[in-house]
Amino acid sequence: xxxxxxxxxxxxxxxxxxxxxxxxxxxxxxxxxxxxxxxxxxxxxxxxxxxxxxxxxxxxxxxxxxxxxxxxxxxxxxxxxxxxxxxxxxxxxxxxxxxxxxxxxxxxxxxxxxxxxxxxxxxxxxxxxxxxxxxxxxxxxxxxxxxxxxxxxxxxxxxxxxxxxxxxxxxxxxx
Length: 175
Description:
Helices cover about 70% and strands about 0% of the residues. It has about 180 residues and is mostly helical.
């Protein structure tokens, strides 16, 4: 079996036993692109800050790796750490928006064309942080409202409301 075929669990166990750089490198390459995309969308502040968040997420993840209980996938767990790192960065600008500032976009059944994807990413940058976070975590990352509530320290109902408003505002921005 090649190194790339090893499971996350096998790589983590190898890394924890020997602090093997190769195991960590494989985990890093496997998960960083998705985690970077998550941070980039949540922050909507450019690649530099997203890179900083991913670096901080890996530092915290490695520190806590031995306590990881495998109740979720490694990527989901690392994503939770990334969300918390993003929240810390956004805390000073974090706010809940007024109803008239919020948005909506229905999930497409097929893969959107590239230019629409770029338009959606630009529109996401214009959303208030709360709406953007819920939209990204729910519609892009596939998290439940209960998971989002736990990550963002909000009620599941608040997550649903923020998603509704995020979609409505996105729809308006994309017209």
